[in-house]
Amino acid sequence: MNTIVLSDLHIGSRYFISGPLKGFFAGLPEDTELVLNGDTVDRRRFRMSPLQKDALDLIRQESLRRRVVWVWGNHDWKYMLPDPAEITFVRNYSVGKRLFVSHGHGFDFITAPIKPLIFLIRVLHDYRVDRGADHVHVAFAAKKYSGLYRVLRSHITASAVRFARKNGYEAVACGHTHYVEDAIVDGIRYINTGSWTEPPVTFLLVNDKEIVLQKIH
Asked: 3-state secondary structure string, 184-202?
């Protein structure tokens, strides 16, 4: 059995990169389960264009052909599709003890204390976009604050790795930070599958032999 892990599609957001999705799903082998690791929809900016409705329909259709697991993130926490077909909704997911899959917001203990600052960044970003600045996701804009962004990423990585070690997992996969990475940290493999709001768009392939982070777009 193969497992494919994607994160942070943010369907409903204007920044969702929808182009590769249909072809990617069509190329998946039959014996493959699909894990959507959080923020599959963006409830904060939930405006459904026809292309985005098609993307949700594709996910429904995939659940009739293969096991589809929808892991909740912070932007789609407890969200349920009106017609979920055969999709399974969960908080976290694991592939035996080889890999723990969690969106990553549960490992984020920094964001809450600095919510006023994050709110200010969002307001400034939205204002700049409304005034003609480049249309980019707020997570991309936040990367300009490189020191703060690096601290957040490092914090989530350390928290995820501690959890994995304590619970006997060989590796842990997150999203949330919109930053693709694959590293060994204190003997635990930490993988972040990035997002579908800016390139590179990636996925994680898990099978009996390997765990590989690969680029789609």
From this structure: EECCEEEEEECCCCCCCCE
Q: Which two tokens stand for residue 178?
A: 């919109």
Q: Check residue 95 and give left, alpha or beta (phi > 0: left; psi -120 to 50: alpha).
A: beta
Would the CA dihedral through 109, 116, 13, 153 be positive or negative? negative
- Contact call for residues 67 and 85 (beta carbons, < 8 A): no
CB atoms within 10 A of CB 135: 9
Q: Which tokens in the block code for residue 4?
A: 């494919």
State the Cα–Cα distance between residues 165 and 160, nearest whole angstrom: 9
Question: Residue 182 has what pLDDT?
Answer: 98
**Residue 40: per-residue pLDDT:** 97
Q: For residue 200, say if its preceding peptide bond is cis, omega within 30 degrees of 0.
A: yes
Phi-psi region of 106 (alpha: psi -120 to 50; beta: other; left: phi over 0): alpha
Q: Could you tell me which residues are beta bridge partners of residue 37? A: 71
Instruction: Mark the ranges of the chain whose per-residue pLDDT is less than 50.
Output: 114
Give the pLDDT of residue 181. 96
The DSSP output letter for 11 is B
Query: What is d(CA 163, CA 92) in angstroms, rounded to the nearest whole number?
Result: 13
The full DSSP string for 17-70 is: --TTHHHHHHTS-TTEEEEEES-SB-GGG----HHHHHHHHHHHHHHTTS-EEE
Return the closest-CA partner of residue 40 out of 14, 74, 64.
74
Provide the pairing of β-strand 99-101 with 93-95: antiparallel
